[in-house]
Amino acid sequence: MKIVKAEAFNIHFKSNMVRDKEGHSHFAPDKEHDAKAGFFRITCDDGTVGCAVGGNMNVDILKNVVGPALIGQDPFFHEQIWQRMRTWQRLHSTFTDRTLCALDLALWDICGKKCGQPVYKLLGAYRDKVPAYGSIMVGDDLPGGLDTPQAYADFAAKLVKKGYKAIKLHTWMPPIIPEPDPKMDIAACAAVREAVGPDIELMLDPYHDYSRQEALYLAKELEKLNFLWMEEPMDEHSMSSYKWLTEQADLQICGPETMEGKNCTRAEWIVAGASDIGRAGSEVTGGITSLMKSVHLYESFGMSLELHGNTIGNIHVLGAMPIAGKYYERGLLHPMIDYDKPKPWFTEIYDPMDSDGFIHMPTEPGLGLHFDFDYIENNKVD
Questions:
Q1: Fewer C-beta neighbours within 10 Å, C or N terminus of the chain?
Q2: How far apart are CA 135 and CA 334, in angstroms?
Q3: How far is CA 11 from CA 67, 167, 382, in A?
Q4: Which SS3 state, helix, strand or coil, does residue 371 take?
Q5: Is the Cβ–Cβ distance between 102 and 56 less than 8 Å?
Q6: In whole angstroms, what is the distance from residue 68 CA to residue 108 CA?
Q7: Under 8 Å CB-to-CB from 171, ≥6 apart: which residues?
Q8: 221 CB contacts (<8 Å, ≥6 apart)?
């Protein structure tokens, strides 16, 4: 079995999501615009096809660097391919971990389809469902959106009625507000706690560049509200700041989330005692192959590992994790967005949630994504 073709291109679609000048995503009901999502497809000589979509992949790197290197390779040698491509990242500055993830997902998709099994079973199945937490989008200034602490509280109460047993807040960040404000964060957290009661687990993902003192203030106030964890309140390049915060706070600190370095960075954080709970994800660490290295790393230290993002790769890894991973991050959620409506390149969403708040593992061979290939071909941007 050999790879004979690798394609990368963008898909055109209409979107009401915009990014502010600091990079945060917001819903903008009056600003529908043209947008694009990356698509990567690998075809083998027996006709087996593996695909990945979105995730901010770099289409140019996949088309001009990765694609030619795949021709003639056996897709079951995905570890060898992943290691080779990992070393190429050093000399290709735009070859990001999110781009490496797209390659890795497509390879796993092929292997699962060829074996007739969902990917999580190839990884070593541990469970067939996982509870989800509702991950609320960052604050905004939209009436009917997330413009006040009470708006967060009202939306959180609706999420509980849908079946969520846990909720995470992303709070206001510049430029929506002039300056980061930890007291605003706590006001929203307190309102949500009052709205959902004591039995719903709550987490906070605030502004990511607070000082040590501001982060400690948040931690101490969240302890009073019985929050489960806080993630990335400071610059993660300062590992010593996280070690200090973890030592000072009783609240569990979760990280690193976006710090580059894959499992190597996480090993350093474990040794330093820089967090209570680990954090990783398929897109931010370079795919399923990479993420499983972090899973086993945290398992070796008896630590929990929570996964970042609502990705198909994370779902399969959660199905194979013998440690908590307590939750799947479902979102980002917003009062004005129907999360259960599939993206236009899908015929159905890949993470439907049942009434008890669980995401079930895919049962189809491969990743289990349901593509609308007519839409993809008709909206291809070369």
A1: C
A2: 9
A3: 18, 32, 9
A4: strand
A5: no
A6: 19
A7: 138, 139, 184, 185, 188, 189, 204, 205, 206, 207
A8: 186, 189
Cα separation of 158 and 195, whole Å? 10
Q: For 44, phi and psi rounded to 5 degrees?
A: -105, 165
Say yes or no to pLDDT of 20 above 80: yes
**Residue 159 contacts residue 200 (beta carbons within 8 Å):** no
Question: Any bridge partners for residue 203, and if so which?
Answer: 168, 229
Find the radius of gyration of the CA atoms of the chain. Answer: 20
Sign of CA dihedral 355, 124, 201, 181: negative
Q: State whether residue 213 is helix, strand or coil.
A: helix
370 neighbors 348 (Cβ within 8 angstroms): yes
What value does the mean pLDDT take over residues 155-163?
98
CA distances from 82 to 285, 288, 300, 324 (A): 12, 10, 23, 26
Measure the CA–CA gap between 152 and 180, rounded to whole angstroms. Answer: 18
How confident is residue 283, by pLDDT bands cut at 50, 70 and 90? very high
Note the pTM of the prediction, 2 decimals.
0.97
SS3 assignment for 140-172? CCCCCCCCCHHHHHHHHHHHHHHCCCEEEEECC
- Euclidean distance between CA atoms 105 and 260, whole angstroms: 19
What is the C-alpha separation between 162 and 355, in angstroms, rounded? 6
For residue 362, the 8-state DSSP code is P
Residues present in the chain in total: 382
